[in-house]
Amino acid sequence: MSNVVGIDLGTTNSLVAYVKDGVPVVIRDASGDALVPSIVSIGEDGTVIVGREAQRRLLTAPASTVYSVKRFMGQGIEDVHGDAGLLPFGIGGDPGGVVRLSIAGQEFTPPEISAFVLRELKRRAEEHFREQGEFDFEVERAVITVPAYFNDAQRTATRDAGRLAGLEVLRIINEPTAASLAYGMAARDRGTIAVYDFGGGTFDVSILKVEDGVFQVLSTNGDTHLGGDDIDARLTAEVRREIAGAAPEDGNDQMVQAVRQAAIQAKWDLSSEEETELRVDPMAGVPGGYRRRMTRTDFERMILPLVERTLGPCRQALADAGLEPKDIEGVVLVGGSTRIPLVRRLVHELFDREPHSELNPDEVVALGAAVQADILVSGRREMLLLDVTPLSLGIETMGGVMSKIVLRNSTIPASGREMFTSFADNQTAVDVHVLQGERELAADCRSLARFRLRGIPPMPAGLPRIEVQFQIDANGILSVSAKELRTSVEQTIEVKPSYGLTDEEVERMLIESFEHAETDIDARLLIEARNEAETVIHATEKSLRRSDFDELAAEALASGERQRIEQALTEAKEALGGADRDLMLQKTEALNKATRPLAEVVMNRSVREALAGKNVRDV
Amino acid sequence: MLECRNCGAGAPVDEHFCQQCSRILALGRHGDYFSFLGLPRRLGVDPKDLEQRFRDLSRKFHPDYFYNAPPAERLASLERSSYLNDAYRTLRNPSARIEHLLALEGLPPATSDEGGAKVPPALLEEVFALNEELDEIRESRESGGEGAALRARLDAARTPIERKRDEHERRIRELGDRWDSEADSPSGERLATLTALREQLLERKYIDNLLATIDREAAGLGVS
């Protein structure tokens, strides 16, 4: 059997984990990094670039680079107008249909972009298994996590992305529940816990009861458009306003991205520091550059309204579970945004309890997904996850009213039935509009699908008794079947997803991706060579810029060597501009060789500096 | 009777697994949440016992454990799990539990035919008084009456309704106990108990609506 993995497909970062000898572990790259930025960039030659390299291209090729695509999964164009202004890539699509992103002259649906990220994770996992010496290193099956508050369309889009990446999606599970599984592995306790999951783009809260290894979700709530992204956007907007006088009012994509990166850095700094300096390079289209001192108090004042928006869903989840804050025996923090001290403080106040954060909040969801994947394929029964559907499911009835069939917070799998009949004699078809949401009017709820019940036997009006069964499976995804009870005729149902891809579209995309598979492999090898070249070039340039360079050169370099390094550097840069992989590798190697004496002396110096002033015991 | 699709052996409708080949059985037209969970048809349910049964059966049925099973068994696991979740949700809630019992015993559901427009006779007095008071409060609010005072009047108006609700709770519990002790009584007596239960449930729903109206009114006054 091929390997199974758990994948946290995040707004900002994604990662992959698996269970090794009964213990979940995340898969890291050679440098020890587990996070793959969920960023996809399309190169000038049409190659697809994912992760850190794509992240660098946010600054150099913003119009060809997509980030935070998770926000668009399962969404219609009318849902995302608010986001469009902040993003450098084009957003389109027909009203009432799926969003399309235009990047580098091509159009992609959000599941296609996510599939690129998943493919990268799949590749990373396969490389890991191959290095481990496994004969069967392929990864074909995965559990993928989604925010608990994702609706049917968003879940389906995630599953489609998995299929497009060549993965059999064993299960879609909710991020907070996955996190609780990972914590449950560590401490087999019982009790009622709250999982507060504040990620890059989404916020979730789930209340769980844990007993006998059964992790039963009592209620869940959240906001699929509230996360670290919004904090970054808030900060970015503030800074752009402050520098509007110096820079063009609208700014260009590059400037916006430079400001955004600076804002993110400041946010990170202020999680551990009381004060930081927010800096934007003069190169980024801000004449004279920009500097601003920011204290943690300034920062908290700016983001308080955003963080406070997480408290309403927490209270609602408690109310839905029939609990008070004091009934919660443990609070678990998940997601990068929970590193912000203000977030911790507010959560602590709400539940009057110090939250748990022993496990890395960036990794805990992937670990839980790996545990669930292991349960599914191994048949291990020590643990069981019972999750709920976050939103009520219903149909549109006369007068545009939403009639609920499965209530929110129902344990899944869940099913519901509804009887339909005809309004006219010999009517052979009935239209059904499926909705998700809590509002009274159909127009205020999420449209999931419209379908037509066909093949009703001709009868006088009101006589047919058509039973429609709505089945929500353990993924939280809906399927519909129908039967006319008088004649036992099964109806054919054509479900047209309102904001998703049809099966045919997914099939077509799959076939296209197979056709591209070969060029994709070449493209990948080229990218790896390019990454390697860039790393060496960057390191060389950095050394050459050092203030103590002359001193170092005197120590390490024979005369004429500096010229040789510069010559090698120029050649490597030229090769980098091209698409000849072999030449790129050759020039990179040459540059590496030319700089080796210099690198050694730099290394020795930094070791000396690091050790200076410390005694042996500290070392 | 059910028939095992794997070995063809017959099985009673409340069995979950085939006694012969121990495979999960397809869910037939069931309809009785009590017997599905192995409980007698009684209104007194121990919440801890109910929860334990739910967890035990979840561990037996859940689709997680049928991932590698043949399609028919996967479907059976999905259907049984869905049904179990429905059963647990229904029986856990005291009102839903009574409604389910009424349906099992062939009584009409405890919903008013007139869509709640008709005031139950037993509540006429309270409803009349409440409506009068609400009218006055609304009038006073529109002419700029003081929020805190109006809120106090609303709270006062709540009291008799809440007293009624508590009365109903008590009576519903008594009737439930009576039903549980009447297992061997003549069917006429048992039907009378159920009919009375249905009546109380209808009134209770009406009372809940009244309380919701007061809450909405209070929300309209804003936080004082």
Topology:
The complex is a heterodimer of chains A (619) and B (224).
Chain A: E1 3-9, E2 13-20, E3 23-26, E4 36-37, E5 40-42, E6 48-50, H1 52-60, E7 65-66, H2 81-84, E8 90-92, E9 100-103, E10 106-108, H3 110-131, E11 139-146, H4 152-164, E12 168-174, H5 175-186, E13 191-198, E14 203-211, E15 214-223, H6 228-242, H7 253-272, E16 275-280, E17 290-295, H8 296-308, H9 311-320, E18 330-334, H10 341-351, H11 364-378, E19 384-386, E20 393-397, E21 401-406, E22 414-420, E23 430-436, E24 446-453, E25 466-472, E26 478-484, E27 489-490, E28 493-497, H12 503-545, H13 549-556, H14 561-577, H15 581-611
Parallel strand pairs in A: 1-11, 11-12, 13-18, 15-19
Antiparallel strand pairs in A: 1-2, 2-3, 2-4, 5-6, 5-7, 8-9, 9-10, 13-14, 14-15, 16-17, 20-21, 20-23, 22-25, 23-24, 24-28, 25-26, 26-27
Helix pairs in contact in A: 3-4, 5-11, 6-7, 6-8, 12-14, 12-15, 13-15, 14-15
Chain B: E1 2-3, E2 10-11, H1 33-36, H2 47-61, H3 71-92, H4 94-104, H5 124-142, H6 147-181, H7 187-221
Antiparallel strand pairs in B: 1-2
Helix pairs in contact in B: 2-3, 3-4, 4-7, 5-6, 5-7, 6-7
